């Protein structure tokens, strides 16, 4: 998202009247319905606005059928799927941290840097976890014991 769009969105949000969000007043299935809509909007927004999420989502789509070939049982396939999906989840959280940090301000600040570095480190560790999991399964599948 461009800086102008972000500032325009920030201005419209900051001028909104104070008070609880309408979602907080909803109960039961109607709350779940609206929460699902917000979640889907977040996924579409991440795909549209975040090149890192887009790349990881595309790699994930390619990896899922490979997991079906690599896994020897349904449990192994699920483990491989979870290893790739957790990377997308952590990338979404990192993107949220970056968006909030940018919302606060673009000036360089040690706490902003720390927040973004922590998010980046989480993505890095998540990536290593996925690579390690897939590597271990590939090794056990194709290397002699």
Keywords:
mainly alpha, 0% strand
What would you say this structure looks like, in words?
The chain is mainly alpha-helical. It has six helices and no strands. The radius of gyration is 19 Å and the shape is globular.
Approximate strand percentage: under 5%
How many individual helices? Answer: 6
The rounded distance between the terminal residues' Cα atoms is 50 Å
Q: Please state the oligomeric state of the protein chains shown.
A: single chain
Q: Profile the largest sheet.
A: none
User: Could you name the ranges where pLDDT drops below 50 across 5 or more consecutive residues?
Assistant: none
Instruction: Write down the overall mean pLDDT.
Output: 87
Portion in helices: over 70%
Instruction: Tell me the number of strands.
Output: 0
Shape: globular
Order of helices and strands: HHHHHH
| Rg over alpha carbons | 19 Å
Q: What structural category do the secondary elements indicate? A: mainly alpha
Helix and strand topology:
Blueprint: H1 3-14, H2 22-25, H3 28-49, H4 51-70, H5 74-104, H6 110-142
């Amino acid at each position: 998202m461009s800086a102008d769009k972000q500032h325009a969105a920030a201005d419209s949000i900051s001028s909104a009247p104070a008070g609880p969000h309408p979602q907080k007043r909803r109960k039961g299935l109607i709350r779940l319905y609206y929460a699902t809509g917000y979640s889907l909007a977040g996924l579409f927004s991440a795909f549209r606005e975040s090149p890192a999420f887009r790349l990881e989502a595309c790699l994930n789509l390619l990896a899922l059928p490979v997991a079906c070939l690599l896994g020897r049982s349904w449990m192994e396939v699920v483990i491989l799927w979870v290893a790739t999906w957790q990377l997308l989840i952590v990338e979404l959280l990192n993107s949220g941290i970056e968006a909030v940090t940018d919302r606060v301000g673009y000036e360089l600040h040690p706490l902003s840097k720390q927040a973004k570095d922590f998010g980046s480190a989480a993505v890095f560790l998540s990536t290593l976890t996925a690579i390690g999991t897939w590597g271990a399964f590939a090794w056990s599948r194709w290397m002699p014991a």
